[in-house]
Amino acid sequence: MVELSFIDSNIIIFANIRNFPEYHQALNIMEMGLKGTLRLCYNTIIALETHYKLNKLIGTEEANFRVEVLLKSRRLIYFDISKNTIQKAISITKDFNIRTNDAVIVASMLENNITKIYTDNETDFMKVPKLQVINPIKR
């Protein structure tokens, strides 16, 4: 059985914008998740960050559509955020000096026994020793 991994919003965004230099590498990760080769997960923060950035890049209607597709996917696993997640995130922010949104992602991961994340943001996530940070974007 393939282990669960989180996918950060930056990878989802890159996979949605064809003229980004990171497009092909990010799309490859997304396709692996949609085919079931990877079991990719995300949470509310990742969905909202994705929508925010896509809204700026491609407009509201297309951003809404693409995030709806993400939310309806049967292959990508969505985790909601609870009060408990937020409380853990506050501790993570303090303990590891990372941004609040990233701390919420880490809290969701740890609550669900997930230690691997695909992201282009190595700096923040590598501060948390329990995580395996994979940057699929080769520069």
SSE diagram, text form:
Layout lengths: L3 E4 L1 H8 L6 H13 L3 E5 H15 L1 H13 L4 E3 L3 H14 L3 H12 L4 E3 L3 H4 L6 E3 L5
Helix pairs in contact: 1-2, 1-3, 3-4, 5-6
Task: Tag the structure with descriptive keywords.
single chain, 5-stranded parallel beta sheet, Rossmann fold, 7 helices, alpha/beta, 139 residues
Largest sheet: 5 strands, parallel
Annotated CATH architecture: 3-Layer(aba) Sandwich
Write down the overall geometry. Answer: globular
Mean pLDDT across residues:
96
Give the helix proportion (percent range): 55-70%
Sheet with most strands: strand arrangement: 3-2-1-4-5
Write structural notes for this entry.
The protein has helices spanning 9-16, 23-35, 44-58, 60-72, 83-96, 100-111, 122-125; strands at 4-7, 39-43, 77-79, 116-118, 132-134. It is built from 7 helices and 5 strands; from the N terminus they run βααβααβααβαβ. It is an alpha/beta fold and 139 residues long. It has one domain (4-134): Rossmann fold. The protein has a 5-stranded parallel beta sheet, with helices on both faces.
Summarize the structure.
Helices cover 57% and strands 13% of the residues. By secondary structure, it is α/β, with parallel strands linked by helices.
